Amino acid sequence: MTLRIQTMRSGPRVAFHLIGRIQAENLADLKCRISGGAQPVVLDLDEITLVDLEVVRFLRDAEAAGIELSHCPPFVREWIERERAVDS
Hints:
Layout: E1 4-10, E2 13-22, H1 27-36, E3 41-51, H2 53-64, E4 68-70, H3 74-87
Parallel strand pairs: 2-3, 3-4
Antiparallel strand pairs: 1-2
Helix pairs in contact: 2-3
């Protein structure tokens, strides 16, 4: 399964429900959607099955910039924290 993105708006808030695999090749589209959306932005990761290193770094940086990572799977959260520790 490739990445599927569902956009949900609630007032000024926009949530992107990400489904499937997120790979580096998907980041340009995701960044475009985020930059063109309202604030605040939420990335709902409940149905993510696979990520790669570039995606983990993107999620780490997005969270640091104020984007909420909702329903982040434990394996993704752990990897983000490891990357955060490496950056320190």
